[in-house]
Structures are given as structure tokens and as C-alpha cells.
Amino acid sequence: MIKSLSLPSAVTRHDQSLLFTYGGSWPAPMVSQETAMTTRNPDATIIGDSPAMKLLLDSIARVAPKDITVLVVGETGTGKELVASLVHTQSRRAKEPLVRFNCAAIPGELAEAELFGHAQGAFTGAVDKHRGFFVEANGGTLVLDEVGELSLNVQAKLLRALQGGEIQPIGAGRVERVDVRVIACTNRDLQAEARHGRFREDLYYRLAVVELMVPPLRDHRDDIPALAETFARRYAEQFGMYGTHLSPELIEHFKRSDWPGNVRQLENTIASTVAMSSGGELGVHSLKRASALVSSDAATVEPTQCHSLKDQVEALERSVIARTMAAVGNNRSQAARHLGLSRSCLFDRLKKHGFIANAREASNCSTAAQRSGEGKPRNQDVEKLTAPGR
Known about the structure:
By secondary structure, the protein is an alpha/beta fold. It has 15 helices and 12 strands.
């Protein structure tokens, strides 16, 4: 009998798309249902019964109660942050703060200030004292998403915090003691990064006391039917399209498909298919129709249409960008890395091809892409969750 585990809403965010069912025993969550943040899917359930996912769940159950640093490794869209949340909710720190920090979204100097804090007047723009996210997470857990993006200078301070439990805010004359469990997430090979001098080897070994590998979707295809049906049911209810369901033919198509964006891409594909359908049973034709409606102008122009070489190249570029953005869940930082572009260059192409819909968004994105060390992180880049009564 397959059992499902409903997670507290506080641990479900954009990476709640990692869903699997577990056939074995699994301890109930140690924290009550919370509404500390609005999530896209407040009723996320872990779904999947494949050997790869059972092994991952067993590893989480073993490591969570031990107060050690964990490195969660996996490709984009596999659900690394959900795994980190599970480790926290099954730990002795479950009732303490869970703080998430996206290392890729913040420039190096600002990342240091956000993580370790700063004194008033420590630098231009430091009008007030800032505690930093290590202090915010004191007693609880700090999740460092995309930890491989940290600069070497910040890595050195992170190593000190992990080794001695001490941080020194920028501009402060004294160190502060903190008690924080760190869970780091990455889609990079940090050992290879260390060999090339881009990541501190000593920090890698300090982070990877235990390494949890989240398998890509291609390694647990048997979970795709349950995942697909769950996503379809969720979005049918969300869109008020009750009775909408996937045909066996479409589910089989999903099982055979490649998913470079993993579970997140599968979820986005099903969401768009349901949204663009008229309800009822959805087959492969519904998927093709949704793809045509969503990205008809991103399709490659056929040479027989006698378009100029320039038009055909631009159409191909737009199609590649559209597919990449969909695969990474519209995460521009990750899309830029996949395409080998800087974020500012990707922004220019998004604007050129009409992916950025309004002037306000364009202005905000342009500012974020061009500045190197000023401004505050966006809400989706840094999130704090605190248990009730804290």
C-alpha cells in the first residue's frame, strides 16, 4: 500500500514540485501546519514509489535527526530545496526558524552583508544595522541554495562560521556566536569546481559531511504517472476545471519524454496543458495544442516560407530561449548559465523577443541585471520561515 506524506505548507515553495510516494514507514512531520508564507501549492504531497526515491527518503530519515551539515546535490528542477526542508522538519530544530538564501541571486559583496550582517554606516547605503541571516536562523536551519555561486571571499567567512560557530558582521569590531545548522544545495560538481580553484576544497568537505543526491526524473520514470496525475488534478482544481484528467496515452508520452528540467518542467508542462485545454480527458493532441498556443511565435520558421536568413536565425534563437526558460521554471539566472550568456545579455534577448511583457518589469529587470553590488534581494531570493510561537 503506497502511503503519501502531506507536508506543512511552510516547507512547500517553488521546489515543492519534487513529489513522490513512499511505500515504507515515515515519521510524521514534527511541526504543525503553518501559513508563514504563501506558496503555489500549499497542499504539496510527496509522491513516488521508485527505488531511487525510496533510497533518498531513507537517507533523509537517517540524517535528519543528526545535527550535522548536509549537502543536497541534484540537477535543476529535481527538488533540492524540498529535500532541505524535509531534513529540517524531521530534525530537532523543527520548531526553530528555517531561513533560505539564494546565493546566485545576490552579488558577492551584498551576499556577505545579507548572510553575516553589517553595522550601521559600515558602507555607503548601510543606514541601519542589519542582523544577517545567520543570526535570523540562530537555533534553526539555514538553507543555502546554489552555494557554488558564492565568491571565494564569502566562502572563507562561511567556512569560519561552520568551523567555529562565529560570524563577524561587516564593520563590527567583535564576533558573534551562532548556533545554526547549514544545509547547502547545488547543481554543480563542487569537487570539480575546487580543482579549478572556483570553490574552496576545505569548505566542500565541511559542507558535505553527508551528501544527499536527488535523482533526475529520467532515473525514476516509474513515478511519472503518479506525478502527472497529481499535477493535473491540482491545476484542474486551481483553474476550476473539475473532471479534467490525463489520458493513458498522454501519461505514456510523458514517461517516454526527456525532461531536462526534471519534475519542475513536468509540472509546468501539465499546468500549461490544463490551462489551455477545454477540460475533460487530455491527450497528446492537448499537449501539442497547448504548446502551439503558448509558443507559436517561438517556433522555428521553415525555410520553405522564404523568410530571410536573419528572420530564421532570430526565430530559432527565440525558440531556444523559450524552451530553456520553460525547462528551468523561468529562472533567469539558471537560463543564462544554460545558454552561456550573462544575465544582462539574456535580459536584452528576453526584451527583444517580447518575453518581458511590460515596461515596469523591464525596468526592474534591467536594474537588477546591471548593478553589481547595491540593492536589496528580492522576496523570492531570500525567504524566512518561523514556526508558530517563535
